Amino acid sequence: MRLSCVSYLCYMKIAIIGSGNVAYHLAKAFTENNIPVSQIFGRNENDLKEISEELSVPYSFENLIDAELYIIAVNDNSIGEVSKKIENKNCLVAHTSGSVSRDTLVGNYRKSVFYPLQTFTKSKKLDYSKIPFFIEAENEDNLEVLKNLASKISKNVMEADSEKRKYIHLTAVFACNFVNHLYARAKEISDSQNIPFDYFLPLIDETTQKIHEIEPKSAQTGPAIRNDERVLKIHESLLTDEEQIKIYKTMNESIKKMYVKDRSPKTEDGSLHSES
Amino acid sequence: MRLSCVSYLCYMKIAIIGSGNVAYHLAKAFTENNIPVSQIFGRNENDLKEISEELSVPYSFENLIDAELYIIAVNDNSIGEVSKKIENKNCLVAHTSGSVSRDTLVGNYRKSVFYPLQTFTKSKKLDYSKIPFFIEAENEDNLEVLKNLASKISKNVMEADSEKRKYIHLTAVFACNFVNHLYARAKEISDSQNIPFDYFLPLIDETTQKIHEIEPKSAQTGPAIRNDERVLKIHESLLTDEEQIKIYKTMNESIKKMYVKDRSPKTEDGSLHSES
Lengths: 276, 276
Prior knowledge:
The structure is a homodimer of 276-residue chains.
Chain A: H1 2-8, E1 14-17, H2 21-32, E2 39-41, H3 45-55, E3 59-60, E4 69-72, H4 79-83, E5 92-95, E6 110-116, E7 133-137, H5 140-153, E8 157-159, H6 162-192, H7 201-210, H8 216-219, H9 229-238, H10 242-259
Parallel strand pairs in A: 1-2, 1-4, 2-3, 4-5, 5-6, 7-8
Antiparallel strand pairs in A: 6-7
Protein backbone atom coordinates (compact mmCIF):
# COMPACT_ATOMS: atom_id res chain seq x y z
CA MET A 1 0.00 0.00 0.00
CA ARG A 2 2.85 2.28 0.86
CA LEU A 3 4.32 1.52 -2.55
CA SER A 4 1.14 2.33 -4.42
CA CYS A 5 0.90 5.55 -2.45
CA VAL A 6 4.33 6.55 -3.61
CA SER A 7 3.71 5.80 -7.26
CA TYR A 8 0.38 7.59 -6.92
CA LEU A 9 2.37 10.76 -6.38
CA CYS A 10 3.38 10.68 -10.03
CA TYR A 11 -0.23 10.93 -11.08
CA MET A 12 -1.37 13.37 -8.41
CA LYS A 13 -1.91 16.88 -9.69
CA ILE A 14 0.16 19.20 -7.54
CA ALA A 15 -0.07 23.01 -7.62
CA ILE A 16 2.32 25.26 -5.74
CA ILE A 17 1.02 28.67 -4.74
CA GLY A 18 3.69 31.31 -4.31
CA SER A 19 6.73 32.45 -6.27
CA GLY A 20 9.22 33.21 -3.52
CA ASN A 21 12.16 31.26 -2.14
CA VAL A 22 10.18 28.42 -0.58
CA ALA A 23 7.90 27.98 -3.59
CA TYR A 24 10.92 27.94 -5.92
CA HIS A 25 12.91 25.41 -3.86
CA LEU A 26 9.91 23.11 -3.34
CA ALA A 27 9.13 23.16 -7.06
CA LYS A 28 12.78 22.41 -7.77
CA ALA A 29 12.95 19.62 -5.19
CA PHE A 30 9.83 18.02 -6.67
CA THR A 31 10.91 18.19 -10.29
CA GLU A 32 14.44 17.00 -9.46
CA ASN A 33 12.86 13.96 -7.83
CA ASN A 34 10.54 13.26 -10.79
CA ILE A 35 7.41 14.47 -9.05
CA PRO A 36 5.58 16.55 -11.64
CA VAL A 37 4.33 19.98 -10.57
CA SER A 38 1.23 20.84 -12.61
CA GLN A 39 1.31 24.56 -11.91
CA ILE A 40 2.96 27.31 -9.95
CA PHE A 41 0.52 30.06 -9.22
CA GLY A 42 1.18 33.53 -7.80
CA ARG A 43 0.93 37.27 -8.25
CA ASN A 44 4.40 38.12 -9.50
CA GLU A 45 4.53 37.23 -13.19
CA ASN A 46 8.25 37.87 -13.53
CA ASP A 47 9.16 35.51 -10.70
CA LEU A 48 6.71 32.88 -11.93
CA LYS A 49 8.07 33.08 -15.46
CA GLU A 50 11.63 32.70 -14.24
CA ILE A 51 10.83 29.61 -12.16
CA SER A 52 8.69 28.20 -14.95
CA GLU A 53 11.50 28.55 -17.48
CA GLU A 54 14.14 27.07 -15.22
CA LEU A 55 12.10 24.10 -14.05
CA SER A 56 9.78 23.59 -17.03
CA VAL A 57 6.70 23.95 -14.87
CA PRO A 58 3.55 25.71 -16.18
CA TYR A 59 2.58 28.89 -14.38
CA SER A 60 -0.34 31.24 -14.03
CA PHE A 61 -1.10 34.44 -12.20
CA GLU A 62 -4.78 34.36 -13.20
CA ASN A 63 -6.29 30.87 -13.20
CA LEU A 64 -5.51 28.39 -10.48
CA ILE A 65 -5.85 24.88 -11.86
CA ASP A 66 -7.90 22.08 -10.34
CA ALA A 67 -5.39 20.01 -8.39
CA GLU A 68 -5.41 17.20 -5.85
CA LEU A 69 -2.77 18.84 -3.69
CA TYR A 70 -2.15 22.55 -3.24
CA ILE A 71 0.99 23.64 -1.43
CA ILE A 72 0.76 27.21 -0.21
CA ALA A 73 4.24 28.74 0.11
CA VAL A 74 3.52 32.41 0.78
CA ASN A 75 4.30 34.59 3.77
CA ASP A 76 2.50 33.84 7.03
CA ASN A 77 0.16 36.80 6.91
CA SER A 78 -1.17 35.91 3.46
CA ILE A 79 -1.86 32.20 4.03
CA GLY A 80 -5.49 32.67 5.14
CA GLU A 81 -6.37 34.99 2.27
CA VAL A 82 -4.59 32.95 -0.38
CA SER A 83 -6.19 29.72 0.82
CA LYS A 84 -9.65 31.13 0.01
CA LYS A 85 -8.80 31.02 -3.69
CA ILE A 86 -8.99 27.22 -3.64
CA GLU A 87 -12.55 26.28 -4.63
CA ASN A 88 -11.95 22.57 -5.18
CA LYS A 89 -13.49 20.70 -2.22
CA ASN A 90 -12.09 17.28 -2.99
CA CYS A 91 -8.49 18.20 -2.45
CA LEU A 92 -5.72 18.43 0.10
CA VAL A 93 -4.23 21.82 0.97
CA ALA A 94 -0.96 22.27 2.87
CA HIS A 95 0.75 25.42 4.01
CA THR A 96 4.51 25.44 4.62
CA SER A 97 4.82 27.71 7.65
CA GLY A 98 6.43 26.96 11.00
CA SER A 99 4.33 29.33 13.03
CA VAL A 100 0.84 29.26 11.53
CA SER A 101 -1.74 26.78 12.75
CA ARG A 102 -3.37 24.36 10.34
CA ASP A 103 -6.81 25.94 10.71
CA THR A 104 -5.59 29.26 9.33
CA LEU A 105 -6.44 27.61 6.01
CA VAL A 106 -9.96 28.70 5.05
CA GLY A 107 -12.03 26.39 2.85
CA ASN A 108 -13.98 23.16 2.59
CA TYR A 109 -11.01 20.98 1.78
CA ARG A 110 -8.71 18.81 3.89
CA LYS A 111 -6.15 20.97 5.68
CA SER A 112 -2.55 20.09 6.37
CA VAL A 113 0.96 21.40 6.94
CA PHE A 114 4.10 20.58 4.95
CA TYR A 115 6.87 22.42 6.81
CA PRO A 116 10.47 22.23 5.57
CA LEU A 117 12.92 23.31 8.27
CA GLN A 118 15.44 25.30 6.29
CA THR A 119 16.38 28.86 5.40
CA PHE A 120 15.83 29.34 1.69
CA THR A 121 17.63 31.69 -0.66
CA LYS A 122 16.78 31.46 -4.32
CA SER A 123 20.34 31.77 -5.54
CA LYS A 124 21.76 29.13 -3.19
CA LYS A 125 21.75 25.44 -4.05
CA LEU A 126 20.48 23.16 -1.32
CA ASP A 127 20.79 19.47 -0.58
CA TYR A 128 17.07 18.75 -0.25
CA SER A 129 17.68 15.22 1.06
CA LYS A 130 18.90 16.69 4.34
CA ILE A 131 16.00 19.07 4.98
CA PRO A 132 13.68 17.85 7.75
CA PHE A 133 10.00 17.97 6.78
CA PHE A 134 7.38 18.24 9.50
CA ILE A 135 3.91 17.05 8.52
CA GLU A 136 0.51 17.65 10.05
CA ALA A 137 -2.78 16.41 8.57
CA GLU A 138 -6.45 15.83 9.36
CA ASN A 139 -6.38 12.06 9.01
CA GLU A 140 -4.06 9.10 8.56
CA ASP A 141 -4.58 8.91 4.78
CA ASN A 142 -3.62 12.53 4.22
CA LEU A 143 -0.68 12.13 6.56
CA GLU A 144 0.49 9.13 4.57
CA VAL A 145 0.24 10.99 1.25
CA LEU A 146 2.27 13.94 2.53
CA LYS A 147 4.81 11.77 4.30
CA ASN A 148 5.37 9.80 1.12
CA LEU A 149 5.69 12.97 -0.89
CA ALA A 150 8.24 14.44 1.52
CA SER A 151 10.11 11.12 1.63
CA LYS A 152 10.73 11.36 -2.10
CA ILE A 153 12.70 14.54 -1.37
CA SER A 154 14.19 14.06 2.06
CA LYS A 155 15.47 11.40 4.42
CA ASN A 156 14.04 13.24 7.45
CA VAL A 157 10.26 13.27 7.51
CA MET A 158 8.36 13.55 10.77
CA GLU A 159 4.90 14.22 12.08
CA ALA A 160 4.51 17.39 14.17
CA ASP A 161 1.30 18.99 15.36
CA SER A 162 0.83 22.77 15.51
CA GLU A 163 2.01 22.97 19.12
CA LYS A 164 5.24 21.08 18.45
CA ARG A 165 5.79 23.07 15.27
CA LYS A 166 5.78 26.31 17.30
CA TYR A 167 8.68 25.03 19.41
CA ILE A 168 10.54 23.84 16.31
CA HIS A 169 10.17 27.32 14.86
CA LEU A 170 11.26 28.97 18.10
CA THR A 171 14.35 26.76 18.29
CA ALA A 172 15.14 27.68 14.69
CA VAL A 173 14.87 31.38 15.54
CA PHE A 174 17.59 30.95 18.19
CA ALA A 175 19.80 28.69 16.07
CA CYS A 176 19.39 30.49 12.75
CA ASN A 177 17.91 34.02 12.88
CA PHE A 178 19.72 35.09 16.06
CA VAL A 179 22.97 33.45 14.99
CA ASN A 180 22.86 35.36 11.72
CA HIS A 181 22.23 38.57 13.63
CA LEU A 182 25.32 37.90 15.78
CA TYR A 183 27.29 37.55 12.54
CA ALA A 184 25.88 40.92 11.42
CA ARG A 185 26.81 42.59 14.74
CA ALA A 186 30.25 40.94 14.71
CA LYS A 187 30.82 42.33 11.23
CA GLU A 188 29.92 45.82 12.44
CA ILE A 189 32.70 45.55 15.02
CA SER A 190 35.34 44.23 12.62
CA ASP A 191 34.29 46.73 9.92
CA SER A 192 34.74 49.58 12.39
CA GLN A 193 38.42 48.61 12.71
CA ASN A 194 38.93 47.76 9.03
CA ILE A 195 39.45 44.11 9.87
CA PRO A 196 38.15 41.98 6.97
CA PHE A 197 35.23 39.85 8.16
CA ASP A 198 36.53 37.00 5.98
CA TYR A 199 39.22 36.40 8.61
CA PHE A 200 36.48 35.12 10.93
CA LEU A 201 34.96 32.61 8.52
CA PRO A 202 37.25 29.68 9.47
CA LEU A 203 36.42 30.30 13.15
CA ILE A 204 32.69 30.58 12.36
CA ASP A 205 32.79 27.37 10.31
CA GLU A 206 34.63 25.49 13.05
CA THR A 207 32.16 26.70 15.71
CA THR A 208 29.29 25.24 13.70
CA GLN A 209 31.19 22.10 12.71
CA LYS A 210 32.01 21.41 16.34
CA ILE A 211 28.41 20.94 17.44
CA HIS A 212 28.05 18.06 14.99
CA GLU A 213 30.37 16.17 17.30
CA ILE A 214 30.15 17.86 20.70
CA GLU A 215 27.08 19.05 22.65
CA PRO A 216 26.96 22.85 22.36
CA LYS A 217 26.86 23.16 26.13
CA SER A 218 30.16 21.24 26.37
CA ALA A 219 31.72 23.17 23.49
CA GLN A 220 31.35 26.57 25.19
CA THR A 221 34.52 28.63 25.51
CA GLY A 222 35.31 32.32 25.95
CA PRO A 223 35.75 34.89 28.72
CA ALA A 224 32.26 34.52 30.27
CA ILE A 225 32.52 30.80 31.03
CA ARG A 226 36.03 31.42 32.42
CA ASN A 227 34.56 34.24 34.52
CA ASP A 228 37.38 36.38 33.15
CA GLU A 229 36.27 39.79 34.45
CA ARG A 230 39.41 41.48 33.12
CA VAL A 231 38.60 40.61 29.50
CA LEU A 232 34.87 41.25 29.97
CA LYS A 233 35.66 44.77 31.16
CA ILE A 234 38.08 45.45 28.30
CA HIS A 235 35.44 44.36 25.79
CA GLU A 236 32.74 46.49 27.36
CA SER A 237 35.03 49.50 27.17
CA LEU A 238 35.57 48.90 23.42
CA LEU A 239 31.88 48.73 22.55
CA THR A 240 30.12 52.00 21.81
CA ASP A 241 26.91 50.85 20.11
CA GLU A 242 24.02 50.49 22.55
CA GLU A 243 22.60 47.33 20.97
CA GLN A 244 26.03 45.67 20.84
CA ILE A 245 26.49 46.43 24.54
CA LYS A 246 23.06 44.99 25.41
CA ILE A 247 23.82 41.82 23.47
CA TYR A 248 27.27 41.57 25.05
CA LYS A 249 25.88 41.82 28.57
CA THR A 250 22.84 39.61 28.01
CA MET A 251 24.82 36.80 26.40
CA ASN A 252 27.58 36.86 29.02
CA GLU A 253 25.06 36.82 31.88
CA SER A 254 23.26 33.92 30.25
CA ILE A 255 26.52 31.98 29.76
CA LYS A 256 27.52 32.57 33.39
CA LYS A 257 24.11 31.40 34.63
CA MET A 258 24.10 28.27 32.49
CA TYR A 259 27.36 27.07 34.04
CA VAL A 260 27.00 28.37 37.57
CA LYS A 261 26.12 24.93 38.95
CA ASP A 262 29.02 23.28 37.17
CA ARG A 263 31.54 25.88 38.22
CA SER A 264 34.44 24.92 40.41
CA PRO A 265 37.93 26.41 40.79
CA LYS A 266 39.08 23.98 38.10
CA THR A 267 36.98 25.70 35.43
CA GLU A 268 39.97 27.95 34.80
CA ASP A 269 41.26 25.48 32.28
CA GLY A 270 44.78 26.17 31.09
CA SER A 271 44.00 24.60 27.77
CA LEU A 272 41.34 27.11 26.81
CA HIS A 273 42.44 29.47 24.14
CA SER A 274 41.66 33.04 24.95
CA GLU A 275 39.86 33.86 21.75
CA SER A 276 37.50 30.97 21.99
CA MET B 1 66.75 37.34 2.64
CA ARG B 2 63.17 36.24 3.00
CA LEU B 3 64.20 32.80 1.76
CA SER B 4 67.08 32.44 4.19
CA CYS B 5 64.72 33.46 6.97
CA VAL B 6 62.35 30.66 6.02
CA SER B 7 65.04 28.00 5.84
CA TYR B 8 66.41 29.40 9.10
CA LEU B 9 63.18 28.18 10.73
CA CYS B 10 64.37 24.61 10.29
CA TYR B 11 67.41 25.32 12.43
CA MET B 12 65.73 27.57 14.97
CA LYS B 13 65.18 25.89 18.31
CA ILE B 14 61.50 26.25 19.15
CA ALA B 15 59.96 25.40 22.52
CA ILE B 16 56.22 25.39 23.12
CA ILE B 17 55.08 26.06 26.68
CA GLY B 18 51.71 24.58 27.57
CA SER B 19 49.98 21.24 27.07
CA GLY B 20 46.41 22.27 26.29
CA ASN B 21 44.47 22.55 23.07
CA VAL B 22 46.42 25.46 21.57
CA ALA B 23 49.81 24.02 22.49
CA TYR B 24 48.83 20.67 21.02
CA HIS B 25 47.51 22.09 17.75
CA LEU B 26 50.47 24.44 17.29
CA ALA B 27 52.92 21.61 17.89
CA LYS B 28 50.98 19.49 15.41
CA ALA B 29 50.82 22.28 12.81
CA PHE B 30 54.58 22.81 13.12
CA THR B 31 55.59 19.17 12.88
CA GLU B 32 53.15 18.54 10.00
CA ASN B 33 54.87 21.36 8.13
CA ASN B 34 58.37 20.05 8.86
CA ILE B 35 59.21 22.70 11.42
CA PRO B 36 60.89 20.83 14.26
CA VAL B 37 59.68 21.55 17.79
CA SER B 38 62.57 21.03 20.21
CA GLN B 39 60.46 20.72 23.34
CA ILE B 40 56.98 21.00 24.74
CA PHE B 41 57.11 22.12 28.33
CA GLY B 42 54.31 22.24 30.89
CA ARG B 43 52.98 21.11 34.25
CA ASN B 44 50.73 18.25 33.25
CA GLU B 45 52.93 15.23 32.59
CA ASN B 46 50.11 13.06 31.25
CA ASP B 47 49.10 15.62 28.64
CA LEU B 48 52.72 16.30 27.70
CA LYS B 49 53.43 12.58 27.32
CA GLU B 50 50.40 12.09 25.12
CA ILE B 51 51.34 14.95 22.80
CA SER B 52 54.97 13.87 22.80
CA GLU B 53 54.08 10.34 21.76
CA GLU B 54 51.68 11.40 19.04
CA LEU B 55 53.94 14.02 17.49
CA SER B 56 57.38 12.66 18.38
CA VAL B 57 58.34 15.85 20.18
CA PRO B 58 60.50 15.77 23.35
CA TYR B 59 58.80 17.03 26.49
CA SER B 60 59.68 18.13 29.98
CA PHE B 61 57.81 19.31 33.05
CA GLU B 62 61.02 20.18 34.90
CA ASN B 63 63.72 21.68 32.70
CA LEU B 64 62.90 24.23 30.05
CA ILE B 65 65.50 24.01 27.28
CA ASP B 66 67.47 26.90 25.87
CA ALA B 67 65.61 27.90 22.73
CA GLU B 68 65.59 30.72 20.20
CA LEU B 69 61.81 30.97 20.15
CA TYR B 70 59.43 30.21 23.01
CA ILE B 71 55.73 30.08 22.24
CA ILE B 72 53.60 30.39 25.36
CA ALA B 73 50.22 28.71 24.87
CA VAL B 74 48.71 28.76 28.35
CA ASN B 75 45.60 30.47 29.68
CA ASP B 76 45.56 34.26 29.82
CA ASN B 77 45.99 34.56 33.57
CA SER B 78 49.11 32.41 33.65
CA ILE B 79 51.04 34.07 30.80
CA GLY B 80 52.89 36.59 33.01
CA GLU B 81 53.91 34.00 35.59
CA VAL B 82 54.94 31.38 33.04
CA SER B 83 56.98 33.90 31.04
CA LYS B 84 59.24 34.47 34.07
CA LYS B 85 60.59 30.93 33.71
CA ILE B 86 62.44 31.95 30.55
CA GLU B 87 65.95 32.95 31.60
CA ASN B 88 67.51 33.07 28.15
CA LYS B 89 67.98 36.73 27.21
CA ASN B 90 68.92 36.24 23.58
CA CYS B 91 65.59 34.82 22.50
CA LEU B 92 62.18 35.67 21.14
CA VAL B 93 59.10 34.95 23.25
CA ALA B 94 55.55 34.97 21.89
CA HIS B 95 52.26 34.42 23.64
CA THR B 96 49.22 33.21 21.71
CA SER B 97 46.40 35.14 23.35
CA GLY B 98 43.85 37.43 21.74
CA SER B 99 43.25 39.60 24.76
CA VAL B 100 46.58 39.94 26.55
CA SER B 101 48.97 42.74 25.69
CA ARG B 102 52.52 42.00 24.58
CA ASP B 103 54.08 43.53 27.67
CA THR B 104 52.37 41.01 29.94
CA LEU B 105 55.46 38.95 29.13
CA VAL B 106 58.01 39.48 31.91
CA GLY B 107 61.69 39.08 31.08
CA ASN B 108 64.72 40.51 29.35
CA TYR B 109 63.99 38.94 25.98
CA ARG B 110 62.24 40.21 22.86
CA LYS B 111 58.47 40.07 23.30
CA SER B 112 55.91 39.21 20.68
CA VAL B 113 52.47 37.77 19.97
CA PHE B 114 51.59 34.82 17.75
CA TYR B 115 47.79 34.71 17.82
CA PRO B 116 45.91 32.03 15.86
CA LEU B 117 42.25 32.98 15.40
CA GLN B 118 40.51 29.66 15.89
CA THR B 119 38.65 27.64 18.48
CA PHE B 120 40.73 24.59 19.35
CA THR B 121 39.55 21.21 20.53
CA LYS B 122 42.16 18.52 20.95
CA SER B 123 40.05 15.76 19.44
CA LYS B 124 39.04 17.72 16.34
CA LYS B 125 41.19 17.85 13.23
CA LEU B 126 41.77 21.31 11.81
CA ASP B 127 42.87 22.64 8.45
CA TYR B 128 45.72 24.81 9.73
CA SER B 129 46.22 26.46 6.34
CA LYS B 130 42.96 28.38 6.82
CA ILE B 131 43.65 29.70 10.33
CA PRO B 132 44.47 33.43 10.35
CA PHE B 133 47.58 34.27 12.38
CA PHE B 134 47.97 37.74 13.85
CA ILE B 135 51.52 38.77 14.64
CA GLU B 136 52.93 41.52 16.84
CA ALA B 137 56.65 42.06 17.54
CA GLU B 138 59.17 44.56 18.91
CA ASN B 139 61.01 45.10 15.64
CA GLU B 140 60.94 44.31 11.94
CA ASP B 141 63.32 41.37 12.21
CA ASN B 142 61.26 39.60 14.85
CA LEU B 143 58.11 40.35 12.89
CA GLU B 144 59.68 38.79 9.81
CA VAL B 145 60.70 35.63 11.68
CA LEU B 146 57.22 35.11 13.11
CA LYS B 147 55.48 35.96 9.85
CA ASN B 148 57.63 33.43 8.03
CA LEU B 149 56.96 30.83 10.67
CA ALA B 150 53.18 31.39 10.50
CA SER B 151 53.32 31.40 6.70
CA LYS B 152 54.66 27.85 6.75
CA ILE B 153 51.41 26.83 8.43
CA SER B 154 48.78 29.19 7.11
CA LYS B 155 47.86 31.24 4.05
CA ASN B 156 46.50 34.08 6.23
CA VAL B 157 49.18 35.85 8.19
CA MET B 158 48.78 39.46 9.26
CA GLU B 159 50.28 42.03 11.55
CA ALA B 160 48.04 43.28 14.37
CA ASP B 161 48.99 45.41 17.34
CA SER B 162 47.51 44.88 20.81
CA GLU B 163 44.72 47.39 20.21
CA LYS B 164 43.60 45.76 16.96
CA ARG B 165 43.90 42.31 18.52
CA LYS B 166 41.38 43.32 21.22
CA TYR B 167 38.80 44.08 18.53
CA ILE B 168 39.58 40.84 16.71
CA HIS B 169 39.01 38.97 19.93
CA LEU B 170 35.78 40.87 20.64
CA THR B 171 34.47 40.11 17.15
CA ALA B 172 35.33 36.45 17.70
CA VAL B 173 33.38 36.44 20.96
CA PHE B 174 30.25 37.56 19.09
CA ALA B 175 30.78 35.25 16.11
CA CYS B 176 31.95 32.17 18.01
CA ASN B 177 31.33 32.16 21.78
CA PHE B 178 27.90 33.79 21.63
CA VAL B 179 26.85 31.76 18.61
CA ASN B 180 27.73 28.58 20.45
CA HIS B 181 25.71 29.76 23.43
CA LEU B 182 22.69 30.32 21.17
CA TYR B 183 23.08 26.72 20.01
CA ALA B 184 23.13 25.64 23.65
CA ARG B 185 19.99 27.66 24.47
CA ALA B 186 18.27 26.43 21.28
CA LYS B 187 19.01 22.86 22.34
CA GLU B 188 17.43 23.51 25.74
CA ILE B 189 14.22 24.49 23.96
CA SER B 190 14.16 21.52 21.59
CA ASP B 191 15.15 19.11 24.39
CA SER B 192 12.23 20.37 26.49
CA GLN B 193 9.86 19.14 23.75
CA ASN B 194 11.79 15.97 22.92
CA ILE B 195 12.65 17.30 19.48
CA PRO B 196 16.07 15.90 18.46
CA PHE B 197 18.55 18.76 18.09
CA ASP B 198 20.03 16.95 15.08
CA TYR B 199 17.03 18.12 13.06
CA PHE B 200 18.39 21.65 13.27
CA LEU B 201 21.89 20.88 12.00
CA PRO B 202 21.10 21.32 8.27
CA LEU B 203 19.53 24.70 9.07
CA ILE B 204 22.49 25.68 11.25
CA ASP B 205 24.95 24.62 8.55
CA GLU B 206 23.08 26.56 5.87
CA THR B 207 22.92 29.70 8.05
CA THR B 208 26.71 29.63 8.37
CA GLN B 209 27.30 28.63 4.74
CA LYS B 210 25.15 31.52 3.57
CA ILE B 211 27.41 34.24 4.96
CA HIS B 212 30.27 32.97 2.81
CA GLU B 213 28.28 34.33 -0.12
CA ILE B 214 25.91 36.94 1.29
CA GLU B 215 26.58 39.76 3.80
CA PRO B 216 25.07 38.68 7.13
CA LYS B 217 23.05 41.89 7.26
CA SER B 218 21.42 41.01 3.93
CA ALA B 219 20.90 37.38 4.90
CA GLN B 220 18.73 38.23 7.93
CA THR B 221 15.31 36.57 8.05
CA GLY B 222 12.81 35.73 10.78
CA PRO B 223 9.89 37.30 12.62
CA ALA B 224 11.78 40.32 14.05
CA ILE B 225 12.92 41.71 10.69
CA ARG B 226 9.40 41.13 9.34
CA ASN B 227 8.06 42.95 12.41
CA ASP B 228 5.75 39.98 12.87
CA GLU B 229 4.32 40.81 16.29
CA ARG B 230 1.94 37.84 16.18
CA VAL B 231 4.80 35.32 16.02
CA LEU B 232 6.95 37.28 18.48
CA LYS B 233 4.13 37.12 21.02
CA ILE B 234 3.55 33.41 20.49
CA HIS B 235 7.25 32.73 21.03
CA GLU B 236 7.42 34.83 24.18
CA SER B 237 4.48 32.90 25.58
CA LEU B 238 6.29 29.60 24.97
CA LEU B 239 9.48 30.60 26.76
CA THR B 240 9.62 30.02 30.50
CA ASP B 241 13.34 30.31 31.25
CA GLU B 242 14.34 33.81 32.32
CA GLU B 243 17.65 33.83 30.40
CA GLN B 244 16.01 32.52 27.24
CA ILE B 245 13.42 35.31 27.48
CA LYS B 246 16.12 37.97 27.96
CA ILE B 247 18.03 36.69 24.93
CA TYR B 248 14.84 36.52 22.88
CA LYS B 249 13.90 40.12 23.65
CA THR B 250 17.41 41.55 23.34
CA MET B 251 18.11 39.91 19.99
CA ASN B 252 14.74 40.86 18.51
CA GLU B 253 15.11 44.47 19.64
CA SER B 254 18.59 44.59 18.14
CA ILE B 255 17.38 43.11 14.84
CA LYS B 256 14.53 45.62 14.66
CA LYS B 257 16.88 48.54 15.36
CA MET B 258 19.43 47.41 12.78
CA TYR B 259 16.85 47.52 10.00
CA VAL B 260 14.68 50.40 11.15
CA LYS B 261 16.17 52.80 8.62
CA ASP B 262 15.78 50.34 5.77
CA ARG B 263 12.22 49.45 6.64
CA SER B 264 9.47 50.25 4.18
CA PRO B 265 6.07 48.61 3.56
CA LYS B 266 7.84 46.31 1.08
CA THR B 267 9.91 44.65 3.81
CA GLU B 268 7.02 42.21 4.21
CA ASP B 269 8.50 40.00 1.56
CA GLY B 270 6.19 37.26 0.40
CA SER B 271 9.13 35.05 -0.37
CA LEU B 272 10.40 34.91 3.19
CA HIS B 273 9.89 31.57 4.77
CA SER B 274 8.37 31.79 8.20
CA GLU B 275 11.01 29.72 9.95
CA SER B 276 13.85 31.67 8.59
